[in-house]
Amino acid sequence: MKYFLVSLCLLETFLHALAQCVPASEFQLEGDYLLGGLFNVHHDSDPVYHDRPEAIDCSSKPLVNSSYRRFQLMRFSVEEINNSTNLLPNVSLGYEIFDHCSDTQTFPGIFNLKSDDLIQPGGEPHKNRSKIIAVVGASTSTHSLTVAPLFMMDLIPMVNYAAASSVFSRIQNLPSFLRTVTPNQDTIEVIVNILQHYNWRWVAFLYIDEDYGKDGQELFIKRIKDTEICLAYTKGLNQYTDYSQIFKQIEAQGIGIIIVFVHEWTAEPLIKSAIQLNVTNKVWIAVNTWSLNKKLPKEKGIKNIGTVIGFSESEVTIPGFSDFIYSSRSMTHCENAEQFVFCNQVCNCSSLSVEDVIAADPSFNFNVYSAVYAIAHALHNALQCGSGSCNRNITVYPHMVSVTVFPLSCTFMWLLNHFLVQVPTLPCSPECGGGYAKKYNGIHKCCFDCEICPTGTYVNSTEDPYKCINCKETEWSAAGSTSCNLRVVEYIPFTDSGAILIMVGASALVGLTLAMSVLFAINYNTPVVRSAGGPMCFLILGCLSLCSLSIFFYFGKPTISFCILRFLPFLLFYTVCLACFVVRSFQIVCIFKMAAKFPKLHSWWIKYHGQWLVITVAFVTQALFLLIGYTYFPPKPYDDISWYPDKIILGCDMNVKSSSGSVVLLLSLCSLCFIFSYMGKDLPKNYNEAKAITFCLLLLILTWIMFATVYILYRGKYIQTLNALAVLSSLYSFLLWYFLPKCYIIIFQSYKNTQEYFKGLIQNYTKTISQ
After folding, report:
1. Contact 215, 140 (CB under 8 A)
2. Given CB 3.0 to 4.6 Å as the disulfide criterion, which of 78, 143, 498, 618 pairs with 579?
3. Which InterPro entries did the record assign (predicted)?
4. What pLDDT score does 341 carry?
5. Residue 261: count of CB within 10 angstroms of its CB
6. What is the DSSP string of 147-180?
7. Can you say whether the dihedral through the CA atoms of 216, 221, 225, 228 is positive or negative?
8. Is the separation of the CB atoms in 308 and 418 below 8 Å?
9. Nearest-angstrom CA–CA distance, 240 and 650
10. Please, are residues 623 and 656 in contact by the beta-carbon 8 Å criterion?
């Protein structure tokens, strides 16, 4: 009797509890049309590999609060649609949801969604027996990639809320796969934009070692290929990762920017390890899979790790969801193992409070909400729903449900509400200063040395920071320049004071030669004029005047005609002058020496007018040299940029090939003249014709030696003035030291300008050499 009363009491207690128990499961809801749902309510963080296929009980794995929240959002969305009078009126939606905690060991639930029975021997192979019209899920790229082909076979729409891998963009392989999540391409683009905005180039990329993370890594490497961003370190993370080794390598390479491309269950141990290992002053870039994590900001010491930049899809508050959670969690659901055909439809989440669910990471919540509504709208269209009713006579198969989705865009946000007061640079190498080009130092383009660009070059950091570009010939730059400046063009204008003085000197020379010619013409038959050369004097004076024309073309902006006239008159007519002095000095030697010792040679010279023959040959030869040389290699203007880095000195380029013959002829005549005149150094003291010629030649040689020395040491614009001065000095050397003394004798010492005086000098010299 005692045991009967106890049993009766226990039975009464059980019946009372059963009366309070809601017989339906959170994972199932009956309806006219069923939606499938795949959520990783639990996470299999340490999968055990078996020799043969084996299903697992997800309820024994750690609970994921954020995934449970998404699971509840699907339930809420379906309930909201069922209560709606506008969307699917008089049609009810149901669902069959599975806890998809593993990508390889939760297939029984997938097969259950595909058909009414797991195994249908003798069934009709062509009849669509799918109990669902669409699937929402799964939770990760790897999970989705594993199960998607099973649904694609029957074109069952699979609307995903979290699988961001780029492989799902291949419509030809996954024709009925859609997603409401931002794809990895867009996420990587946001990351790169952040890096470029803050000029961060030396970064680490940590990714979860599965499809989602590997895809992100590949996209990131491809995206930064043509940018200044360098991937200094990358590592895949899993449950066996040694975080201390990772952070040692990051510190060793001086990396300050860490991109964390992982799920929340991988981000949590990573960040906690960073706190424990005292990793500080880093910039962490959190992707949308964990940027809204609610646990990490509460971790002690989280602020010491640095600044965390996170971004996610735009947050949308879903009205009524909190009330639904309060209502749902207040009920007690019967979750007896015997009640269900399949495992993984048991939550074991009684430890979760309402506040825990509401405060969980809201990532991908609106994506789930949008996915359910997208399917509902597609079904609404397929059933031709109108005002207050739907056509229930239409048989709807999954491939008839045409779902359209619009993924949300990403927003930037600060996970820890930190703002960068001072943006860290954290490069492998400090940025080169202005005027410095980068030189690669190692395998990464972000590691480089800085070399200053030399004079005449510059670096354009926006176009090519690794190359010093040569300036144009008309430009110049100092060492370490970022641009070139135009060179200053310099030449001697006619208004230059030095040029005016020299041109006045040349004009005076012409006047003096004219005056001397008149004086010599008046005293033509006097001994002084006859001994100076007689008619040859007028030829020399005329050629000296013509030579002075060259001086006027050393000034002003050079042109081809200016360059020709700068050299041609001097070379041609100075040749005649030197030829005249050669024969004149030769005649002096003949008169006083050869006439006595070689009378026949002297008579031949007199008979055939040897002096005019030599002058004519010299003139014609020089004229031919100049004609040939100027025909093929005429002098032309050129810009001398070698002497000054910031100036262009305008001058005339006298080609060596065109002028070599003329110069050799001039040197030959000068040498002969000097030899003959030197031979007459012991002539009568008062008869100093040879001595005067020798002295003129010494002045001539000294003048051009001085000019050549200056030309070697100085190439500025005043070299043209000095060249003109050397030419003028060459003309004045003969005019002043040969002709001027004779003019002085004619004017002031007329007693020496008599036949008796000259005969006396000759007789005395003849007696001297005969003795």
Report:
1. no
2. 618
3. ANF_lig-bd_rcpt, GPCR_3, GPCR_3_9-Cys_dom, GPCR_3_9-Cys_sf, GPCR_3_C, GPCR_3_Ca_sens_rcpt-rel, Peripla_BP_I
4. 46
5. 30
6. HHHHHHTTT--EEESS---GGGG-TTT-TTEEE-
7. positive
8. yes
9. 76
10. no
